[in-house]
Amino acid sequence: MLDTTLANLPSNSRQSAAVNAANSAAPSRSMVKLHEDYTTMIDPSALRLAMSYGKSGNTTKEMGKMVATIMEALWDKAFMASYSLSGRKAPSDMNDPIKKKLPAKPAIPADARNAIIQFTMKFRETKHNMRIPATTVNPLISQKLLTEHSSVKKALNNEESVDEAE
């Protein structure tokens, strides 16, 4: 599975080119499947960048960087800030009277979520000879969603602070 994705990537593997392409506003015209069993497509340069993080070590930190890079290639900050992994309300929201009344965030698309999980599991098994369960990848996806939610919330609070100061 991973070999199919890797075989479809362009041969130029210079990391600086991958960084520039992943950060550019215009994605590459040729997209590749993130995982052969799913329809989720990703820019090859962004995938190459994500894999470079995954190859750099076998800790959860590197795996988290890889998952975050894949997610950044698939969605923008606003999308990630407004979605959750499961679509269920957080248990901590039930104790807050204001949050309790708000609806739960919708779940990220199942196809993309499953593609990220399966790609990460296969990558770790292929590159590091480590079998990991999906339950290891789920918190990394949730963490990225939470990070983007916090970032957007902080930006909104900063804008409100500036408006009040004027």
TrEMBL record:
Gene3D superfamilies: BEN domain (1.10.10.2590)
GO biological process, one term: negative regulation of Notch signaling pathway
Matching PANTHER family: BEN DOMAIN-CONTAINING PROTEIN 6
GO molecular function: transcription corepressor activity
One GO location term (cellular component): nucleus
InterPro entries: BEND6-like
Taxonomic source organism: Daphnia sinensis
The protein's name in its UniProt record: BEN domain-containing protein
Keywords: Nucleus, Repressor, Transcription, Transcription regulation
Localization per record: Nucleus
